[in-house]
């Protein structure tokens, strides 16, 4: 099976931005940020380029600082024909029956090109702003019940009845099915590094989505999931330049001023997410995880900025090494947002496909 490559959909306004510093998370969380507004022109431009570059899907991030992911997927899906949408959503912010109804409607409107990224929530303060007062472990326990109900609806074998600690449905029925050419339910990517996240991925997910690490560290974890029929997807940043040395220089040039670093660190350290804490620890303790894997951008751009960098050949060889340990999918970010994806599609992806075939 060939590796599957997905990309992070830029936030509002980011497609037009030409420097990495403009896209750091501290700026995108300000009330004046264009990330808060729909950006159909930028999103459609990016999405169509993604289709042409060989990208399978885009991941849509969920937060209080940007528009709703389900509505974005519906709007951009109308303007594309092949690209799929991995919709991030927090379980528990609506009732499961309503959620399935919306996802099924979305699938019908965009030809089944939708998958789900289940996020239990990384910020207690943000969750409480949505009216959710459960703590970290309970959020995952609720997600387990929530997804059990969703799967019952997608099986479509009668009315749904469920009585759990967090969710309850009695005589649930939906006439609108999940419509897709090759599936009866969406793929489900479960994010997180905690034991609770891993357990949820094993019981309710299609794929466990976690941050990239060295192949040596990931190999036993990947084996555990693959042995139980669950795929493993890695989240990472990428910097591709003609040579390794040029890629390292490009990464160093992306570092913003120290004040941005202080503000981003405050965001990371307040989170109860194990993913965020582990990424920050990697940046503080080692920086360079191996010759091509660098955590130096994490204190400025967030946990998903653990970055694979090098020449096109370097990157292709690294992706194939992850394939050898059982990783099947990657969700990538780059800076500037559009330019780095175009470089990947032109310089790196053909090398990977040639080696696979």
β-strand amount = 15-25%
Strand order of the largest sheet: 1-2-3-4-7-8-9-12
Q: Please count the helical segments.
A: 14
**Secondary structure tally: strands:** 12
Q: What would you call the shape?
A: globular
**Backbone CA Rg:** 20 Å
Give the biggest beta sheet: 8 strands, parallel, barrel
The helix/strand order is EHHEHEHEHHEEEHEHEHHHEHEHEH
Protein structure class: alpha/beta
> What percentage of residues falls in helices of 4 or more residues?
40-55%
Description:
With 357 residues, the chain is of the alpha/beta class. Helix content is 46%, strand content 17%. It is built from 14 helices and 12 strands. It has helices at 25-28, 40-53, 69-78, 96-109, 124-129, 136-155, 195-204, 215-227, 244-253, 258-270, 274-285, 298-301, 312-324, 337-356, and strands spanning 4-8, 57-60, 84-90, 114-119, 160-163, 168-172, 188-191, 207-211, 231-240, 293-294, 307-310, 329-334. The strands form 2 sheets. Strands 1-2-3-4-7-8-9-12 form an 8-stranded parallel beta barrel, surrounded by 7 helices. Helix 2 (40-53) runs parallel beside helix 14. The longest helix is centred in the middle third of the chain and has 20 residues, at 136-155. It is globular and about 60 Å long. The N and C termini lie close together (10 Å). The model has no long low-confidence stretch (mean pLDDT 92).
């Amino acid at each position: 099976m060939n590796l599957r490559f997905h990309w992070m959909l830029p936030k509002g306004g980011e497609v037009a931005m030409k420097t990495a510093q403009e896209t750091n998370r501290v700026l995108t969380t300000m009330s004046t940020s264009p990330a808060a507004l729909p950006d159909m022109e930028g999103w459609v431009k990016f999405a169509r380029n993604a289709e042409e570059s060989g990208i399978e899907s885009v991941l849509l991030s969920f937060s209080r600082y940007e528009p709703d992911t389900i509505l974005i997927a519906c709007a951009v899906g109308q303007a594309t024909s092949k690209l799929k949408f991995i919709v991030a959503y927090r379980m528990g912010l609506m009732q499961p029956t309503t959620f399935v109804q919306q996802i099924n409607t979305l699938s019908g409107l965009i030809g089944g090109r939708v998958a789900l990224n289940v996020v239990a929530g990384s910020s207690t303060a943000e969750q409480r702003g949505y009216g959710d007062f459960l703590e970290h472990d309970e959020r995952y326990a609720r997600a387990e019940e929530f997804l059990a109900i969703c799967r019952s609806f997608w099986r479509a074998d009668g009315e749904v009845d469920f009585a759990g600690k967090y969710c309850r449905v009695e005589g649930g029925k939906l006439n609108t099915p999940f419509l897709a050419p090759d599936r009866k339910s969406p793929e489900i990517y479960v994010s997180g590094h905690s034991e609770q996240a891993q357990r949820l991925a094993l019981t309710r997910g299609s794929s466990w989505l976690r941050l990239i690490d060295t192949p040596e560290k990931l190999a036993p974890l990947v084996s555990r999931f693959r042995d139980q029929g669950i795929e493993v997807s890695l989240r990472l940043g990428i910097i591709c330049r003609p040579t390794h040395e040029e890629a390292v220089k490009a990464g160093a040039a992306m570092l913003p001023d120290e004040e941005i670093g202080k503000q981003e660190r405050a965001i990371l350290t307040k989170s109860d997410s194990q993913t965020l804490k582990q990424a920050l620890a990697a940046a503080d303790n080692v920086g360079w995880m191996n010759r091509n894997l660098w955590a130096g951008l994490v204190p400025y751009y967030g946990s998903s900025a653990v970055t694979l960098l090098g020449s096109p050949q370097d990157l292709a060889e690294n992706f194939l090494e992850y394939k050898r340990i059982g990783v099947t999918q990657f969700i990538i970010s780059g800076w500037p947002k559009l330019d780095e994806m175009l470089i990947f599609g032109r310089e790196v992806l053909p090398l990977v496909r040639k080696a696979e075939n």
